[in-house]
Amino acid sequence: MRRLVALALLLAITLGAGAVPRARAATPRPLGLYVLDNAANLNPTTQMYPSNLFSDSTYLRHVAGHAIFCPIAKIVDSVATWGQFHYHWSVLDTLVQLALTHGKSFSIELETGFESSSDTYRQALPAGFSATCGGNCAPLFDVWATGGSGGSCTSSYVLLPWVPNVQQFWSVTAESLAAHLHDIGAYGALTLVHIPGVSVYDEELRMPTGAPSPSPSDTLPCPDGRPAYPTVMSDASQQNWQTYGYSDSAVIAGFRAITSAFAQSFPDRVLGLSMFPHGSAPGIAFPNFTGDSAGYVSAQLVRAAAQIAPGRIQIQSDNLDSAVIVPSVISLARENAAFIGWQSNKHGGTGAGCGGGGANSCLPDSPSGHFYNLLAYGAAQGAHYFEIWPHDVIAYPEAVAASDAAGLYSSAAVPHVPPDAVALELAQNVPNPFGRRTTIRFALGREARVRLEVFDLAGRRVGVLVNGPEGAGEHDVGYDALGLPDGVYDYRLEANGATVTRWFVVLH
Question: CA dist 37 to 42, 193, 382, 437, 471, Å?
């Protein structure tokens, strides 16, 4: 019976509470200016940032972190058998190390199905992903996008979150990502993980609404070769969506499952929801074929996330330049005790500019110029986290410095993370469960005074394995549970000002 109870407790920890918690500390919040990479266009890592960014004094003085966007096709190159996902982390590791070597924190968003007007959309998913996931798992949609002097057809894969295979993929990926960041000693500098499902370049549930639509005069083909007219309207039709099983309840239930997986894998980190205005403008609302009020689905998703991970939800608007977005994001944040972040358009070289203008329309740079006003506007809405494009750091140094001096996104409030201080790792003991003897491995990025202790579920210390200075590198510690009753215990590693915790089960 005691063995059954202990196994039940272990299952409750690993399944009910999610992946084994890796840290027991205050949840760090993303603060300050985070510089975006340019992964959306599948650039090589050498082209993710301007070549002179990392020597730029504005970057060195005023940027607190990196907002890392990594397409899943860069970490999973192919899927031959569903459920067997082989992760290759070199691209992500390069981006993480760029942040760490410059003493910056970082956030992560894994991108899928992002829109493109070129062939890059074909690389949005790993080879074989759609075929092995299933026909209703990741369909390809064509969407009519407006901008500039006219419209264009973009194509995007959309991972449908109500499909069990999609939920399985994100669950496995969330746990694999968390474990990998621990393995390379980078988890300590992570502050934010975006939840796939409500995001500009992820599942994009808003995209296939398809309004406005092309007309018979629009003869250019979409990236997948189909004619823009009438393909876009067909893709966006209610009938097409319903063939894939769309319903409000299906979206909400699927999203809850994905959010739970990320909340369990990152139990001590902020989770981000990137949102467009829900139902306030044509073409960017959730599909609504059930007569619900505008914004019903997106509001339910935010409420679900706030229930699953209370106090750890950040709602981010992906385009601060649009005043339409602000009320809906702020109201949802206030209602659900979440906090706010923003992402600016590209200003200092590409993309849209200030006041609806083109590139560089925020110039001239000044402490009270257009770009400073943009930052000030975000801060006035309660945002303390702001993703900006690297071009902006270089193009608007006076505006960025002025916002820092005004305390809007002050780097003084964001301690930089020394690369060697984040390498504090505690591995799962082997074997686990165990009857008497087990081995615990930990790693240090630098020499430190270490305490490694064992506690029962009542919080009583039942063993001290290490108490003293240890050198950098990996360390194996044997543990003998003789005399310890069957049950669940946690073991805690304290070093470099941080505490990491894992659990084991004793079954004699």
Answer: 10, 15, 24, 47, 35
